[in-house]
Amino acid sequence: MASTLAGETLVSQAIAPVPERSSLRRWWVILVVVWLVSAIYSGSLLKRGWIPYDEGTFAQSAERVLAGELPHRDYGDPYTGGLAFLNAFAFWLFGTNFASMRIVLFIFFLAWIPAFYGIATRFFSPWGAGLATLLAVAWSLPNYSAPMNSWYNLFFATFGTLAILRFLESRARLWLFVAGICGGVSFLFKIAGLYYVAGALLFFLYRAQVAEEVQQKSLLEYSQRRGWKFRVLVLGCLLILLGAVFIIIRRSLSFVALIQFVLPIVALGILSLRQNEVAPAPPRRPFKVLFREVMPFAAGVALPIALFLMPYVLSGSVSSFVRGVFVLPTRLQAAAARRPPGFNPIRTYGTVVLVLLLFAGGYGAGRIRKVTRGLLLVAMTFVLLASAKDLGIYQFIWAPLTFLIPLAVFAGVYLLSTKPLRENLSPARRQEIMLLLCVTALCSLIQLPLPVANYFCYVEPLLILTLLALLSMTKKTSTFILVSLTVFYIAFAVFRFTPTFVYEMGYHYVPNHETSRLTLARAGGLRVHPAEVSLYQQLIPLVQEHAGESKYVYCAPDCPQVPFLAGLRNPTRILFDFYEDPAGHMERVLNALEAHHVKVVVFYPGQWFSKPLDPELQAALRQRFPGVTWVGQYEVRWRQ
Predict the structure, then answer these.
(1) Domain that holds residue 118
(2) pLDDT tens sequence across 104-149
(3) Is residue 320 part of a domain?
(4) Is 226 inside a domain boundary?
(5) Domain check: are 228 and 370 in the same one?
(6) Is residue 519 part of a domain?
(7) How confident is the model at residue 327 (pLDDT cuts 50, 70, 90)?
(8) What pTM, to 2 d.p., does this model score?
(9) CA distances (Å), 629 to each of 21, 569, 632, in order?
(10) Both 492 and 538 in a single domain?
């Protein structure tokens, strides 16, 4: 909760730069209205839907922390471990059930909304920023309200970006320290928090070369003395960054993946290198500026990580943390890696149409006749209605959005590198735009290794902020087109995208089936598919009955939700079987079952990420647990 309070304090201090064209009162009224609408809409969907192994993983990790265990040292947490502690606090505060974790997530979400709005008002009027905030909300948490680590990555990337913007305005380096803390905390939720840190560092490399404080005389004096040493530093950092990106992307590598994830970073790197030529600064100044700004940021990143690592240092288990955070996740990448969708005709045509509409929105003020406006509204209405029935139209609307991130970065790089356009912007505005380009491009990597629809939602709000920044560069925006597009995509999210749960999301429209309340005590009242309600309300009492006085149940592979819902414990240290070392796996499982006097085991013959349970282990378990019954796909066995 301290992180939440820090985020709210950050937001309250960041409201100072209100646009001149709007009064402070209007700014606050719009924020409050947007905040209430967002809270009501998102709150109504907070308990909708689940992916059982996601919920089970988070809940079982939190229970283990409450029992005094440390992630990675005592059990295999799939993530960094910070979320386990936050969810353990949620259990302590609100009760041990799935809903408690979502309530804490919702509190962070409510703190994130004004932070997003505070950034948006730096580029558009409060009215436009409020509408953009509603768009960001519609495409974020309501689509999948599980307490995913990636939501916290989004929230803290936004908080951190806001802090850097405040630094650009005030020059108070305390804001860089706050921005660094946001990066460190984000990493503690998931290693993907380092994407925001990398984006911020790339921005600092760019900013260190801006000669806004140097007199014109100094520029002329040093114009022939290029800072080649600093350029070598920038080039070296870019090569390291690209090497890291290729490690991340290698299992999803394709031509589309290169365009979508690699080339935007390359373009930003080239822009940073060219900045030395466009606005040469005194040779020593870039190093001095970079050092002064990176040091407080790096200190902020290091502080929460150092505090989190203290128990590992004291117990001599830092190596377990390093292995669990940086080594074992490569198994997940191998199991889940997918290539992003290719350039099919629907995606291509949809992208062209959307880009043209955005271009017209940026440069079409006063050029659109009433007849054209009417036709555009009719076309949008027809497309929205038809998307419920026609797969092609649904894809025509949705498919271009993921490719809009690299296109926005390419457009931003072009605008910042074109002299006439660049000279129309103040150095401060250029830096604000560059910051959003860097953060969005790097944070878009969160879509890997599984570039599916719900993962796009973890970065889509940053895309909206980037588009706002780019559109603010022109004075000829068409309010009609921009508002129409925004309302259209809000409506598409609310009526077509969000009702479709994550399994089909992004592929075609499916009406909401997550409607039945799971009444098990630890389910927290989640609304799930009726078939799953029937399944788990038979399975869990059966497991509890055969467990008897034992406090343990063994479920595999990838079934962490079963022990949690049953109020029992997992006798092994593994939540997901693909994290387990195959060598000696059978012996470790059988020894754990005997040591904890396990009386019931559950097999799940289907697969999530892991391979099916080893046949030799299955045979040994069937021999030791001869009693058997089936509940759906689950094979429940017990001692007789």
Answers:
(1) 2-497
(2) 999 999 999 999 999 999 999 999 999 999 999 999 999 999 999 9
(3) yes
(4) yes
(5) yes
(6) no
(7) confident
(8) 0.93
(9) 70, 21, 10
(10) no
